[in-house]
């Protein structure tokens, strides 16, 4: 990513006082880049080492393209000046922010991390700030906004250079606040280096991404790294009901506002009414209480509301404004997003792709569904293979009918993924297997009766990946098309419930 300057040239000797510079008394930088093939004349090339490649091996290409100097983790046998630092990824992130004018210091900036709930919490907080009349910038897995324009996002947290560019534009557009969703991978790769937060939120820590982080201890430690980015007067928001909170609170020596529904906390919530299309809960801070009526349901949504509300209160907003901001959010794409076409049963699109997230979605639906819960789900090829049997276990125990299909197979043999999921079943014959995702969604909808709920899990609103050159499709569009073209012609009062056979043989993987 190429980062151009928003300030005057930066002296690397002054900015990295403990670095070692070879070939020049100092290196003064106006722009930097961490991809050799994208270097431009006058750039500082930053040699970053990742799991996939070593940027030190492409220094010659960067110099051929016009780079004036190199930032690296070791001395290099080149004629160009070299600045050697212990961690080039950390240095790159910090330098990007400095070249952008350190925008996080010009706004009240919020960082949100956690296994589940990051995106919803970020969107809720964006709504709270807008309700309060504050121009807000947003970095989330669904969209990025610089306070004026909003564009679809392709990842949760962009690379360091791109992140600095977004934050810089937010500051230029006079955003009073900025909300940044921070993934564990972004923290591990130091993409947020140089970003300082007024408030850091940890929603929860569940078993996930262990294929990348190795152990739950490492994963939890990386998540806690967000608090290292707090400004001197910054504060943390922690979910007191989450098992990881004890670890976090024990090692966090900063002001903390705890939230919860069960454990003692400074900000609490109590659900008083719950229906398929809305729920009402009481938000209590000290001796003040506000009722919140939201179109989104489930305990997980209440926790997300608590996290967003806590930030609003720390920013000096009153509880009534916070409550109105929460109520203004009626739907978030791919987060138990309803698909309504006049059918007598619920259809929901959700991004749940891990065992914990799938469990949360199914539990929420069971709380408001009088009939059966039918679940269409799969496992992504690029995900942790050890999670696949756990997905099967969750679906078998919490859904009345599980339909296993492909989910971002990316060319991998879909049937192998299916068999991995079936390893988690006590009775595999009870699962219905349809590797074609469109076919699986249509079949599940055809089995629904009045009062049922169909959960289509895995991708949210993202189009499915091509499998063996077959184009992907948007789950919500597939569901809506079937509901209009087929479901609208079914007389659900006259038609008898269909008998589902579980005895069919599961296709064998090659």
Describe this structure in words.
This protein has 510 residues and is an alpha/beta fold. The chain has three domains: 2-98, Udp-n-acetylmuramoylalanyl-d-glutamate--2,6- Diaminopimelate Ligase, Chain: A, domain 1, CATH 3.40.1390; 102-327, Mur-like, catalytic domain (UDP-N-acetylmuramoyl-L-alanine:D-glutamate ligase, 3-Layer(aba) Sandwich); 337-489, Mur ligase, C-terminal domain (Protein-Tyrosine Phosphatase, Chain A). It contains 16 helices and 25 strands. The strands form four sheets. The chain has an eleven-stranded mixed beta sheet, sandwiched between helices. It has a six-stranded mixed beta sheet with strand order 1-5-6-7-8-3. A six-stranded mixed beta sheet has the order 20-21-25-22-23-24, sandwiched between helices. Helix 4 packs across helix 10, helix 10 (299-314) crosses helix 11 (319-327) and helix 15 (437-447) crosses helix 16. The longest helix has 16 residues, at 299-314. It is globular, with a radius of gyration of 25 Å. The two termini are 41 Å apart. The model is unreliable at 464-471 and 496-510 (pLDDT under 50).
The CATH homologous superfamily of the largest domain corresponds to Mur-like, catalytic domain
- CATH-derived topology of the largest domain: UDP-N-acetylmuramoyl-L-alanine:D-glutamate ligase
Assess the beta-strand content as a share of residues.
15-25%
Largest sheet: 11 strands, mixed
Write the layout of secondary structure elements.
Elements: E1 2-4, E2 10-11, H1 12-15, E3 20-22, E4 28-29, E5 31-33, E6 44-46, H2 59-64, E7 69-72, E8 82-84, H3 88-99, E9 108-113, H4 118-131, E10 136-139, E11 143-145, E12 150-152, H5 160-172, E13 177-181, H6 184-188, E14 197-202, H7 210-213, H8 216-224, E15 230-239, H9 245-251, E16 256-260, E17 267-275, E18 278-285, E19 288-294, H10 299-314, H11 319-327, E20 337-338, E21 346-350, H12 355-368, E22 373-377, H13 387-398, E23 401-404, H14 414-422, E24 432-433, H15 437-447, E25 453-457, H16 475-485
Parallel strand pairs: 5-6, 6-7, 7-8, 9-13, 9-14, 10-13, 14-15, 15-16, 16-17, 21-25, 22-23, 22-25, 23-24
Antiparallel strand pairs: 1-5, 2-4, 3-8, 10-11, 11-12, 17-18, 18-19, 20-21
């Amino acid at each position: 990513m190429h980062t151009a300057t928003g300030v005057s040239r930066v002296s690397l000797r002054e900015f990295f006082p403990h670095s070692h510079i070879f070939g020049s008394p100092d290196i003064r930088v106006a722009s930097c880049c961490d991809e050799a093939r994208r270097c431009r004349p006058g750039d500082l090339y930053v040699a970053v080492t990742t799991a996939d490649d070593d940027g030190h091996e492409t220094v010659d290409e960067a110099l051929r393209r016009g780079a004036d100097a190199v930032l690296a983790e070791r001395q290099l046998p080149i004629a160009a000046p070299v600045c050697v630092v212990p961690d080039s990824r950390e240095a790159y992130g910090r330098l990007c922010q400095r070249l952008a004018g350190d925008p996080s210091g010009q706004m009240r900036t919020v960082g949100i991390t956690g296994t589940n709930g990051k995106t919803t919490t970020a969107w809720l907080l964006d709504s709270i700030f807008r309700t309060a009349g504050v121009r807000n910038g947003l970095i989330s897995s669904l969209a990025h906004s610089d306070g004026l324009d909003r564009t679809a996002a392709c990842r949760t947290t962009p690379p360091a250079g791109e992140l600095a560019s977004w934050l810089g534009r937010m500051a230029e557009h006079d955003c009073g606040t900025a909300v940044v969703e921070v993934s564990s991978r972004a923290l591990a790769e130091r993409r947020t280096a140089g970003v300082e937060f007024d408030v850091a939120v940890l929603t929860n820590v569940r078993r996930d991404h262990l294929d990348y982080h190795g152990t739950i201890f490492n994963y939890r430690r990386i998540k806690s790294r967000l608090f290292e980015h707090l400004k001197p007067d910054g504060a943390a928001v922690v979910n007191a009901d989450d098992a990881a909170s004890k670890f976090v609170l024990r090692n966090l020596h900063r002001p903390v506002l705890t939230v919860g529904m069960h454990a003692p906390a400074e900000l609490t919530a109590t659900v008083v009414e719950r229906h398929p299309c809305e729920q009402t809960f009481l938000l209590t801070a000290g001796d003040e209480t506000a009722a919140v009526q939201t179109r989104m349901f489930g305990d997980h949504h209440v926790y997300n509301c608590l996290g967003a509300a806590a930030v609003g209160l720390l920013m000096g907003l009153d509880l009534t404004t916070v409550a109105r901001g929460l109520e203004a959010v009626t739907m978030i794409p791919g987060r138990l997003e309803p698909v309504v076409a006049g059918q007598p049963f619920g259809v929901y699109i959700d991004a749940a792709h891990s065992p914990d997230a799938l469990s949360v979605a199914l539990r929420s639906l069971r709380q408001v569904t009088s009939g059966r819960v039918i679940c269409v789900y799969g496992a992504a090829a690029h995900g942790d293979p050890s999670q696949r049997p756990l997905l099967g276990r969750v679906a078998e125990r919490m859904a009345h009918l599980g339909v296993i299909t492909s989910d971002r197979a990316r060319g991998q043999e879909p049937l192998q993924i299916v068999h991995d999921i079936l390893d988690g079943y006590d009775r595999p014959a009870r699962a219905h297997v349809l590797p074609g995702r469109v076919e699986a969604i249509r079949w599940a909808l055809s089995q629904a009766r009045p009062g049922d709920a169909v959960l289509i899990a895995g991708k949210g609103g993202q189009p499915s990946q091509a499998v063996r050159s077959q184009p992907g499709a948007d789950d919500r569009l597939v569901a809506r098309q079937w509901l209009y073209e087929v479901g609208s012609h079914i007389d659900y009062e006259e038609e008898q419930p269909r008998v589902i056979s579980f005895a069919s043989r599961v296709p064998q993987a090659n």
